[in-house]
Amino acid sequence: MQQQPSPNPLDPTRHPAGMTHRNVFTDQLPTLALVGLGASEAWIGLQRAFEPISQLIQLPTLRAVGRLRKRPILIGGQVLAVLGGLPLIAYGTLQGWGGDLALAVALTSLWLTAVGIVISQTVWFPLLRSYVEPDRIGEFFGVLRTGWHLTLIAFFLGAQQWLAAHPGSFGPLFAVATAAGVLRIALIARLPDASVIQPGESMRLRDLVAIVRDRVPLRRYLAGMILCGAPRRAVLPFVVVMMRRSMGLSDADVVLTTVASFAGGFASLYAWGRIVDRVGAAPVFQVTALASSALLLGLAVVGPRASLLAMIGFFFVFVALAAGFGVADTHVLFRIAPAHEATPMLVVADVTANLAYGAAPLLAGIALDRLIAAGIDATAAYRGLFVAAALVIALAPIPLRGFRR
């Protein structure tokens, strides 16, 4: 009988520590830090592409899963993520350097951190699958994600106060996140070193391609995830850039919208989990995608005229909707991933979707750079991006309409 690698998948410290480290080094804080270093839209889009495009590393990591225990892979990836982020603790020094060198160091640091996170995630997410009862997938992930959202709300409230008192001082915030990353290493090092290798986990690339080719439900799932997830990831970093460069909001103001985004997830995740388990994924996909599309169209109309309070409300609602879509996403994926090949299917789904997720902000950043360089007003360029994203997201429920209870 397979031994479960952890006695408590809902550990009250393990997930918040890991997700604090991950979010601080991959989400809005790096965007603000890069704006502070004078990064262009293309560089900001590239940074947002680091983690999703690095998902390709999961493929060779998956080969190792068939020969190694999962815990060393989990720890090794987390160690690399922590070491990769160390230069950003000296953010003040990078500001002093300025120019291309500072940007190169910051971007390299963020990339190495993303690579380590991806290696660790290759085995972490499949491990969680062994804990989930089929009829409570939504509730399980609603509870799991609610816990670390609360931790991130506390972190970013503190970050907002810090940046209000020390504008542009991101180094201490990265230091706190690094400490959380080190704490996660200590916590996951306590996991029992039991073999959790499943038959078929070590697969070749053509085997992984065959998984997508031969499974119609997986292809429909991926189409819906890409139609909703790619434009959402293309938009969010440039909403942040718009707030800083077009609306004139401070770093502390923007961090308040980050707090609002995690508050939106915290307030809605448990309810979304119960709803998905009760009514199925398809209705949740439809409601959340269409509402997100409408919200982006509203932002395109209002643009930089929006107040800080309005932007806080936008992030709260937008992320609450994304949380519902995400719980329904996991519900479907866990149901279509058979137990005998759960890891390869989860990995190939993750890699395929994340290639699109990574390409979206990068291509958006390059397009915005060129439009602005050609003389197009930056505000008009951002609005065009928001409208395009809204139209694509509205199409997402079409391939997902069959995933009912």
Describe this entry's structure for a reader.
This protein is mainly alpha-helical. Helix content is 78%, strand content 0%. The chain is built from 17 helices and no strands. The protein has helices at residues 14-26, 28-36, 41-53, 58-65, 70-85, 91-97, 99-129, 137-165, 171-188, 205-213, 216-245, 251-279, 281-302, 308-336, 342-373, 378-393, 397-400. Helix 3 packs antiparallel against helix 11 (216-245). The longest helix is centred in the last third of the chain and has 32 residues, at 342-373. It is globular and about 55 Å long. The chain starts with 13 loop residues before the first helix and ends in a 5-residue tail after the last helix. The model is unreliable at 1-13 (pLDDT under 50).
Beta fraction of the residues?
Answer: under 5%
User: What average pLDDT do the residues reach?
Assistant: 83
| Number of strand segments | 0
Helix/strand class: mainly alpha
Q: Helix and strand string, N-terminal first?
A: HHHHHHHHHHHHHHHHH
Helix content: over 70%
Please report the number of helical segments: 17
Uncertain spans: 1-13
Give the overall shape, derived from the CA principal axes. Answer: globular
Largest sheet: number of strands, sense, barrel closure: none
Distance between the termini: 31 Å
Rg, nearest Å:
20 Å
Give me some keywords for this one.
single chain; 17 helices; 78% helix; mainly alpha; disordered N terminus; 405 residues; 0% strand
